[in-house]
Amino acid sequence: MEIILFEPEIPPNTGNVARLCAGLKLPLHLIEPLGFSLSDRYLKRAGLDYWPFVDLRVWSGWEEFIRNWKDKRIIATSARRGSLFAEYRPLKSDGLLFGPETRGLPERIVSDSSGLFNIPLEPEVRSLNLATTVGFFLGFAFSRLHSQGGLHGGV
Hints:
This protein has about 160 residues and is an alpha/beta fold. The protein is built from five helices and seven strands; from the N terminus they run E-H-E-H-E-H-E-E-E-H-E-H.
């Protein structure tokens, strides 16, 4: 699996996701423009000393990224739209796509995906923290893949 952050805005969120990717040995794709510099101290602090272990790929925009994403599914996430997360049937080759913290994914990006899924929230809660959402979807996908015998030989 691979994690794709489209135009992330908050450095600590991206740092926490990077740390998760380092721990699980998953590629992390960041699609510009970013809401911060990659040298941001809060980004580095959230990622701790794990940055050397992150398979980080930075793309100049969606068009560059999508041109290079070959024959693999992109699974988009949303706070309010799409199917319930439990309906997601993961593949080891999936890219999980997450939108910017304050705006979510634009429709033009969602239309390039193979599916759109959400975590049901109470109406008073606008969204979950980005790193929490990434961890939630990865945990669900890993559990589902493991139960299907799909985690042997790496994630």
